[in-house]
């Protein structure tokens, strides 16, 4: 398979092309599953969450610029910590050691980011 050209795939998703939707899903399935698995007791619930989330993405793909603006509301340090934890899969201890903060501070950043993103996304999608 050719390397993913994200802009091209997103444009295909905007046009509701199934091939582009499948490519986007396959590209991001693993990191999304890993993130969701941290919140649910079993794989089935995590898979269901990923699938539900991707359906929302496909339904709102034309708002992609808005979503980046929403994510930008996290301060840069918190965004980095969220990426390391949820996407890259590092533990709180590993992040703390790598960025020179305490585990408690890392946990605080993760908690604050969940609160902030939850309220931002709820207000965005419930308008």
Q: What does this protein structure show overall?
A:
By secondary structure, this protein is mainly alpha-helical. It has two domains: 1-62, no CATH class; 73-127, Winged helix-like DNA-binding domain superfamily/Winged helix DNA-binding domain (Arc Repressor Mutant, subunit A, Orthogonal Bundle), CATH 1.10.10. 76% of the residues lie in helices and 0% in strands. It contains seven helices and no strands. It has helices at residues 6-14, 18-37, 43-59, 64-71, 76-87, 92-99, 103-125. α1 packs across α2, α5 (76-87) packs across α7 and α6 (92-99) packs across α7 (103-125). The model has no long low-confidence stretch (mean pLDDT 82).
- How many separate structural domains? 2
Sketch the topology as an H/E string, one letter per element. HHHHHHH
Largest sheet, described in full?
none
**In which range does the helix fraction lie?**
over 70%
The stretches of 5 or more residues where confidence is low (pLDDT under 50) are: none
- The average pLDDT is 82
Large-scale geometry: globular
Distance between the termini: 39 Å
Task: Specify the number of helices.
Answer: 7
Supply the helix-strand structural class: mainly alpha
Characterize this entry briefly.
With 127 residues, the protein is mainly alpha-helical.
Task: Provide the fold topology.
Elements: H1 6-14, H2 18-37, H3 43-59, H4 64-71, H5 76-87, H6 92-99, H7 103-125
